[in-house]
Amino acid sequence: MVGLWNNPCHAVIEVENWDCKVAGLLRPAGIRHLKITDIRGSSKGVVKHLVELPADQAKRIPLGICAATPGDSHQKISTSWIESEGCRVCNTILSHGTFLVSGRWITESTVMYSFIAPSFTAYRRIVSALERGGFKVKVLQVGKFESRMEVLTEKQQRILWIALQTGYFDYPKRIDSEALSRKLGITPSTLTEIIRRGTRRLLEDFFK
């Protein structure tokens, strides 16, 4: 499956999305501006949204829709997993095998989505499918993976690029080894070894 990721691209789009299920669940509680830092499908047929918002607002999340307990009152920012059946936008993006890196409300009806698609063709299919569905889509950024140096093999460059774009190196991590390797169709141990060898090569080249 990793062969599908030979030419990945990173895209950022804005979509006028009145269909957002999480927004519909939170608006009655007076929560209108939040950051969705991760969106994942699950085997239960629901879509999980990792929602980030001020801790005082997290207390307003209705009971029964939060899959994880918000942080304590001493934290300024709280993160919570919220489950829903997923809106047409999220499901369209996820159905093309992408990493949906983040989603953030810009206005009450506009959401900015950042995602990594397996190829430029997959990215174009996502945009086309959304437009056919009646959504207004504004493309803000599209960046393709390009092999740049001889220090790393092309596979190492590609895997490290995807890991960087999806937040693997962030603290805290946006995606762990298990989730990243599952998307790429390789084992966690293979992913870890590719990243370890690639990082070692970069360090050796830097300090030589």
Description:
It is a single chain. With 208 residues, the chain is an alpha+beta fold. The protein has two domains: 2-144, no CATH class; 154-207. The protein is 34% helix and 26% strand. The protein has seven helices and seven strands, in the order βαββαβαββαβααα. It has helices at 21-26, 55-58, 88-94, 120-132, 154-165, 177-184, 188-207, and strands at 9-16, 35-41, 47-54, 77-84, 99-105, 110-117, 137-144. Helix 5 crosses helix 7 (188-207) and helix 6 packs across helix 7 (188-207). Residues 69-73 have low confidence and may be disordered.
Counting H and I runs of at least 4 residues, what is the number of helices? 7
Question: Radius of gyration, rounded?
Answer: 18 Å
Q: How many structural domains?
A: 2
Biggest sheet character: 7 strands, antiparallel
Shape descriptor reads: globular
Number of distinct beta strands: 7
Distance between the termini: 35 Å
Instruction: Give the low-pLDDT segments.
Output: 69-73
Mean of all residue-level pLDDT scores:
83
Spatial strand sequence of the major β-sheet = 4-3-2-5-6-1-7
- Report the sheet-strand fraction: 25-35%
SS-derived structural category? alpha+beta
Spell the H/E element sequence.
EHEEHEHEEHEHHH
Helix content: 25-40%
